[in-house]
# Entry
Amino acid sequence: MKHRIIAAVLTVATLALGASLALAAEDKAAAPAAGKASTVAATPAKKISAAKRYAPALANPININKASIKELKKLPGVTDEIAARIVAGRPYASKADLVTHNIVDTGVYGAIRQSVIAKQPYKDGAKNAALYKK
# Structure
């Protein structure tokens, strides 16, 4: 009886291991197809020239909570439309909010992240938190 239980447990463990290996092989085969889809999604970011995409950080970063559209358009990859969306989405708790709130795509954010800041209007955290509740 004891041997049958051990044999049954070993059989189940072998089947589980085989199933996990089969799923891993399927995931590995599907990974190149997923990589191709991500390059298609990143196509708009390729429109930015390589010189602008890897622009060095500005000595005085631009505050996205206060900058005018004209100032924002000086950033690499920022068009009139993107600058207007940045102004309309204010205030921002951090510069990463530009991506998380779908204001700019990751390609443009990668180009401007070293050149922007999201300075908070108040030193009091409670006042700042009240601004971001919408």
